[in-house]
Amino acid sequence: MAPRIMLLSCCRAMPKNDGAKKPVPEKVPDQRWKLQVSYLCFYGFMTQIRPGESFITPYLLGTDKNFTKAEVTNAITPVLSYSYMAVLVPIFLLTDYLRYKPVLVLQSLSHISIWLLLVLGTSVLAMQLMEFFYGITMAARIAYSSYIFSLVAPSRYQRMASYSRSAVLLGVFTSSVLGQLCVTLGGVRFLTLNYVSLGFVSFGLILTLFLERPRRSLFFNRPGGAGDAAVPTELDRMAGGDGGRGTRGWQDMVLCRMLQELGALARQPQLRLWSLWWVFNSAGYYLMLYYAHILWNEISPPTDNRRVYNGGVDAASTLLGAVASFAAGYVKIRWKLWSELVIGVVTAFQAGLLLLMNSTTNIWLCYAAYILFRGSHQFLVPIAIFQIATSLSKELCALVFGVNTFFATVLKTIITIIVADKRGLGLSVHPQFYVYFGYFTLLAVVYLLAAIRVGVQHSHRRQPVELALAKELCQLPVKIPAQEKSPEAGTVRA
Asked: I need a surface site. Which of 169, 181, 307, 356 has the fewest CB within 10 A?
């Protein structure tokens, strides 16, 4: 990134005895990256202010649009999964190649398209197009989350990433609370709320235009010059020490070689376990999110918009997810031994929550199960990130999460085609949730069986060690020190 490269080059250019000028090149770039990070966090917060988002489903099913539940469940909502899978890989590559900002602009334009279609569209095709743009916005989130890495030094990655993530969560929470207050206390119509959301996303586009476009990125735009050659990255080492020269051979070969490296990394038990959790559990998690609002509408059909509490529930689940993610950082156990058990217990808990959501007729009980389901998933996310990333470079880490997300999206799309799409089984929302319950139950059984296997292997490994220690303890009295032998020997001679 430009500020860091300038700092290194300026420090090398100055004579050692020039004490008066040394603080200047350090102070100015330092203040600049702080300003950039602060603006990025503000941008992340403001782009989440979409108070109508929690009420899209009741808006589509209500008098404003009058779509049927079958149309929303089996024709409109499935497009989101298809769109996300179709654009995920191109956007992942374009984000890095175009250096973040153009993809963030695309995301903002897609947000505007979503709310224009929600306000003006009247056909199923228009709503399907709305879901297509929604898939683009979801895939483009990678641009915001990775933008921070181009602004700061590696030593600050973890802290700055937590700041940017916290800004997003705070924005989602504020947006949900604002929407709920408008509906419940202000009696604002869903259509008016969508106009307000359109105004906020339009303001988000203006904020995007003022973001600085970084000069470097993770894969395709490596920093050049001698300043960075002293600290070669994973890509530099794989390119044979090519550093920042950016030759065509590097672009053609390195990503392929990194994918081969991932094949070797897949043999690591912890990385394989948590990657599989990311793929299988994330697919089920997002399917639940997509259809939960339709389930709520089925359990308690709204007769008065003031009694629709989607925003409050989303706010509570976001808050619990943030608390759970924070608490996960303080869990200190032997993850190599207990990972399968923890995942199995949490997944079994989620399966029970899905069954409760689908079988209850009390909407508040369904709300509570939804909040706990999201909180339990968010509890494991930072643990998975740490377990996957702890032994990887940032380049390989980005590639691992990209591959995991892609496979999760493919699995989610396959399940959607079979279960939800009208060209498949076309199930209504209640039978769908029974399928998701069975899915999580199967995952929980597999994880718990794996936990039993790990426990048995661990106990077998401990037995030889304990026997060896017991033998050593038995042999200790035989080895008498030399200084104790001589007095006894003298007594016997006497």
From this structure: 307
Instruction: Round to whole Å and give the CA distance between 191 and 197.
Output: 10
* Cα–Cα distance, 2 to 102 (Å, whole number): 18
This prediction's pTM: 0.80
- Positive or negative, the CA dihedral 232, 236, 238, 241 is negative
The DSSP code for 267 is T
What's the chain's Rg over C-alpha atoms?
28
- Cα gap 403→92, rounded to integer Å: 10
What separation in angstroms does the CA of 424 have from each of 37, 69, 86, 409, 421?
Answer: 46, 17, 19, 18, 5
Higher pLDDT, 487 or 288: 288
Amino acid at 340: E
52 confidence band (pLDDT: 50, 70, 90): very high
Q: What pLDDT digit, counting tens, does each position of 426-477 carry?
A: 999 999 999 999 999 999 999 999 999 988 887 877 666 555 555 666 665 5
Query: In the chain, pLDDT over 70 holds for what percent of residues?
Result: 75
Burial class (CB in 10 A: 0-12, 13-18, 19+), 281: buried
The confidence score (pLDDT) of residue 223 equals 59
Closest CA to 365 of 296, 287, 289, 429: 296
- Would you give the DSSP letter of residue 337? H
Cα→Cα distances 458→335, 411, 431, 471, 472, Å:
13, 33, 41, 21, 22
Structure tokens at 161: 């990433």
Yes or no: say if 224 and 52 are a contact pair by the CB < 8 Å rule. no
Count the Cβ atoms, other than its own, within 10 Å of residue 322: 18
Residue 31 pLDDT > 60: yes
412 or 217: which carries more pLDDT confidence? 412
Distance of CA 44 to the CA centre of its chain: 15
